[in-house]
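Task 17 of the worksheet. Students: predict the tertiary structure of the chain below and write it out as C-alpha cells. Keep your answer in the requested format; marks are given for formatting as well as content.
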Amino acid sequence: YSQKRENYSENIGFIFQQVDLYLQSNNIGSCWIGMAKPKEDMNDDNSQEYVISLAFGYSDGDIYRDINRINRKRLDEISDKTDERLDVVRVAPSAMNSQPWYFTHMDDGSYCIYRKRQNILKRRLLDRLNKVDIGIALAHLYLANRDSFEFMINDEHEVIDGYIYEGSFKI
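Model answer:
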C-alpha cells in the first residue's frame, strides 16, 4: 500500500526491489505479483492504495534462472547509445517481461529514463505495473552505483515519441 503521491508506484518498485535482491542474497526466493489484490481492503480510511505484492519464501530448488535462458533486450534496444553502465538494468524484472525502459544520454553526463507508452490494449494491464518497473530499473542502477547515483526530475528533457519521461539520474 502507498499514499497516492507523485511517483509513488516508481518508489514502491525502487524500495521493494532492494528488498527483493536482499532476500535473494540470503537464498530466499521471491516473485513480484502484480495482478493480485488483497481480498478485503486493509486500508480502512482509504488514505492509501494497493500497489503490488512481493511473495517470498524458501525454495526446494535453485532460486536463480540461467541467465542465458532469460529473454532480455539488448543495450542498443533500451538506450540511444550502447553503454555498459546500463547493463545492470537488463536483468531487472518487469511485468510480463515488458522491459518498458529507455535511456538517453545527456551532454552533461546524466541520463534520462523513459517508460514505453503501451498500446491501448496493453495500457490497461501494464501502465500501473510499468511504473513500478521503472523503480525496479532505478534500484538496479542505484545498487550498482551507490556512491554516485543521484535521481532528479528535470523540467527540460527530450520528448520521445512513444515514451513518457520518468526522470533523470547521474551515475
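Marker's comment: The CA atoms of residues 106 and 112 lie 7 Å apart. The two ends are 29 Å apart (CA to CA).
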